[in-house]
Design a protein that fits this description.
There is one protein chain. The longest helix is centred in the middle third of the chain and has 29 residues. Strands 5, 6, 13, 14, 15, 16, 17, 18 and 19 form a nine-stranded antiparallel sheet that branches. Helix content is 47%, strand content 20%. By secondary structure, it is an alpha+beta fold. It is elongated, with a radius of gyration of 35 Å. Helix 13 runs parallel beside helix 17 and helix 14 runs antiparallel to helix 15.
């Protein structure tokens, strides 16, 4: 080590080039590094989902879930399988063993599911994909008292415009129903013409298709042959012949049916500020910059507003870039403040030029660490920025120790070059071990498993690379600077009197501190015993529960969220009543609190959004659908402009809303990000009745503990069923169970003729 330090000290040009290289590498990397709100990571999970319209949860479980589970259960690499059966929908989540090849297992799962031949024909083909954490940046709401079709057309147009903007490639429309062409035929009409809905659907399907038929090779070239008859709009279906008589007369579809453009018959509605709305979720993908994506969307909104139809408005919400931007500003502010404070303190006790060179170690170390992060697959995000802020107070210690020791030796009369080398060597080993101990302290976080471990790993990686950068700067770059700096070359104890602050510090070290050290050494056994007692007291306080433990603290946000789950089968009107009551409770609460604030203060409520018929996760993932589900978001004033926390507001909202007797579960949230539910208990049993009784008993017992709230379970009682069977005499009439099932399904659910993509 002595040779390397001496060589860099003597060859100051090399040290300067190394410093400039680290600074430029950090700046260049910072301009190109990926900026995102939270790290986009794989979750080591595989999702299998399928749709089985009209089927009850038990039927989905028996006909779909169990079939797939039995097929994939024996595959190596699977740690756990969790399945959910809802009305018309089944989902299977496969948790993969840590370190297992995800792509290999994904291919094996797809192969096994594709081999299944026993899934119902009416069910959709299972969708198999790896679950990844998507980076949702900002949301748009297009709202107003206009028809749903107008909102949808505008939303699709705006989505297309957004994805054509530079830097944006992924946007999704939500809160709207899918388009359908409805063909409605009266029961009397079907009986009059002796028709069934299934027959009409088959005729419609066979009359609307595009099909290539090959090619003809001629002397003049090759000619393609194609049957082209796809019908894309409702009016195109009017002239489809349903019945052709022997005399050539025809009964057309338009003569016996009402044909109209409509929407899927599901309960799904979005509201923004109480008005019908369409929601557009904008995501950051690949190496796109979250800040640039948000800024581009906001500029587009401002340019769009003048061209909107009368009665339609557009606004953005859930802007996650605000939090990222504030964290970046906090880091820069803390860095500048750290530079200033370090310079002032070192200037008071040492020398201003020395303070400058020591302080320069902070940006050099940060730039050195930043240049390495992309190679470690670490981006600039909320978690990694926390690591930068955490290491800010540690990174300058090495340079202070080395710089002060060189300064001390130079003051004693040694030459500049010799003082730089000797001073660095004297404290080099302690400095190296101090950095290594800090690295070792953070190293266990690299081994944290699970989904949370993939997020937390950003913190130790940032801390480690920045500390290594600070070690390189303090051992090889700083001595070269101090060897040729006027801070030490012009200092001599005989030529220049010491500062009063430096004299005061020297007196404190020589008198009180020296006396205290001698006293501790003299009574060493007593002080060692006192240290052990203090250690035991600390351990006892922790074990007694006085110091609370939280694996991942909840990060408060500026949005209050409420998830409403009513009993399955609850009418849409009742769910809307509950949502309206909860929104009113929130509005009344915030209005009441506004009256207690200064008159010129901005209102606590910015806007409210409600979604009826569905629930979505933080990143746009679906948590379920149905008329019994709903979700409310209350956008609050930014945290820096209000004194009351979002957590307290969430608790006040819960108290204000009171108890809703017929609700299955109502959950209030206020955190931006959390590690999940504080406590989850998984119960399994082959007997559903015993399982439900056990869950209810456990919920009742948990409710007796103070501080326990929002207790819910994942089991939802299905809707009431009418189960149909054929009578014995049906066989003599030529009826089969398939005839009965098809007729009833077509009469109530409808017969789907075909699917096609129209426009985009």
């Amino acid at each position: 080590m002595k040779g390397a330090i001496a060589w860099f000290t003597e060859n100051h040009v090399t040290a300067n080039l190394l410093m400039i290289f680290l600074l430029l590498a950090g700046v260049f990397t910072g301009m190109r590094i990926k900026l995102e709100v939270f790290p986009e990571t794989a979750l080591d999970k595989i999702s299998i989902s399928t749709v089985y319209f009209g089927a009850s949860p038990s039927e989905v479980e028996e006909a779909v879930i169990r079939q797939i589970e039995e097929k994939i259960a024996g595959l190596p690499g699977i740690k756990r399988i969790d399945s959910t059966a809802r009305e018309g929908y089944g989902s299977i989540i496969i948790e993969v063993i840590k370190g297992w090849d995800m792509q290999t297992l994904l291919d094996e799962v797809k192969a096994q599911v594709d081999r299944l031949t026993t899934l119902p024909k009416e069910s959709e083909k299972p969708i198999i994909r790896e679950i990844t954490r998507r980076s949702q940046v900002i949301n748009l709401a297009i709202f107003g008292q206009v028809p749903e079709n107008t909102l949808k057309n505008l939303a699709q147009q705006i989505k297309d415009d957004l994805t054509n903007l530079p830097g944006i490639t992924l946007a999704e429309v939500s809160g709207l129903r899918a388009n359908e062409i409805h063909i409605e035929i009266a029961e009397k009409t079907l009986q009059h013409y002796n028709l069934t809905l299934g027959y009409v659907a088959g005729t419609v399907a066979s009359s609307s298709l595009d099909l290539p038929a090959g090619s003809i090779k001629t002397s003049r070239g090759e000619v393609l042959i194609r049957t082209k008859g796809r019908r894309y709009f409702a009016l195109d279906y009017l002239n489809i012949p349903i019945i052709t008589n022997l005399d050539g007369s025809q009964v057309l579809l338009g003569q016996i049916a009402q044909i109209s453009e409509g929407f899927e018959d599901v309960d799904l509605y979005a509201r923004f500020k109480g008005k019908p709305a369409a929601i557009i979720n904008v995501f950051r993908v690949a190496d796109q910059n979250a800040l640039e994506v948000a800024d581009t969307v906001k500029k587009y909104i401002n340019s769009l507003k003048p061209d909107l139809p009368a009665g339609v408005e557009v606004a953005h919400f859930a802007d996650m870039s605000k939090i990222l931007r504030s964290r970046l500003h906090l880091l820069i502010k803390n860095m500048l403040l750290g530079l200033l404070l370090v310079s002032i303190l070192l200037g008071l006790f040492l020398n201003l030029r020395l303070a400058f060179w020591v302080t320069l170690g902070i940006p050099v170390s940060f730039m050195a660490g930043l240049s390495i992060l992309p190679w470690l697959d670490v981006s600039i995000n909320m978690i990694s920025l926390f690591g930068f802020i955490m290491v800010l107070g540690i990174v300058v210690d090495d340079a202070i120790i080395v710089g002060e020791n060189i300064f001390r030796i130079q003051e004693n009369g040694m030459g500049a070059y010799e003082a730089a080398v000797q001073g660095t060597l004297e404290v080099g080993r302690p400095v190296i071990f101090s950095v290594l101990t800090s690295i070792i302290a953070f190293f266990p976080l690299l081994k944290t498993g699970g989904t949370m471990g993939k997020l937390i790993v950003n913190i130790p990686l940032v801390v480690i690379v920045v500390l290594i950068g600070s070690l390189i700067e303090s051992l090889f770059i700083l001595p070269a600077h101090l060897a040729r700096s006027k801070a030490v070359s012009s200092i001599s104890a005989e030529k220049k009197p010491q500062k009063i602050s430096a004299l005061g510090l020297a007196w404190i070290i020589a008198k009180p501190y020296t006396w205290l050290v001698n006293f501790c050494i003299q009574w060493r056994y007593a002080f060692v015993s006192a240290g052990i007692v203090l250690l035991l007291l600390t351990f006892g306080i922790w074990r007694a529960g006085w110091i609370k433990f939280n694996y991942f603290p909840k990060v408060e946000g500026d949005v209050l969220e409420c998830l409403i789950t009513m009993p399955t089968g609850t009418p849409e009107n009742r769910t809307m009543e509950v949502v309206a009551g909860l929104e009113k409770a929130a509005n009344d609460l915030l209005t009441h609190l506004d009256k207690k604030r200064p008159a010129d203060a901005k209102p606590l409520l910015v806007h409210s959004i409600s979604l009826i018929g569905s629930q979505t996760g933080r990143r746009g993932s679906s948590l379920g659908s149905g008329s019994h589900l709903a979700q409310i978001w209350i956008q609050l004033l930014d945290g820096e402009h209000r004194k009351i926390s979002s957590r307290k507001l969430s608790n006040l909202w819960r108290d204000k809303a009171g108890v809703i007797p017929d609700a299955k579960a109502i959950t209030f949230k206020s955190e931006l990000h959390s590690g999940g539910n504080p406590i989850e208990i998984h119960l399994s049993c082959n007997n559903y009745d015993q399982l439900i009784d056990a869950a209810e008993t456990l919920k009742n017992e948990l409710g007796k503990f103070s501080g326990v709230f929002d207790i819910e379970d994942s089991f939802l009682l299905g809707k009431q069923e009418l189960q149909l069977k054929l009578k014995p005499a049906a066989a003599s009439l030529g009826l089969t169970l398939n005839d009965l099932a098809r007729q009833v399904r077509n009469a109530f659910y409808g017969a789907e003729a075909l699917r096609f993509q129209r426009n985009k």
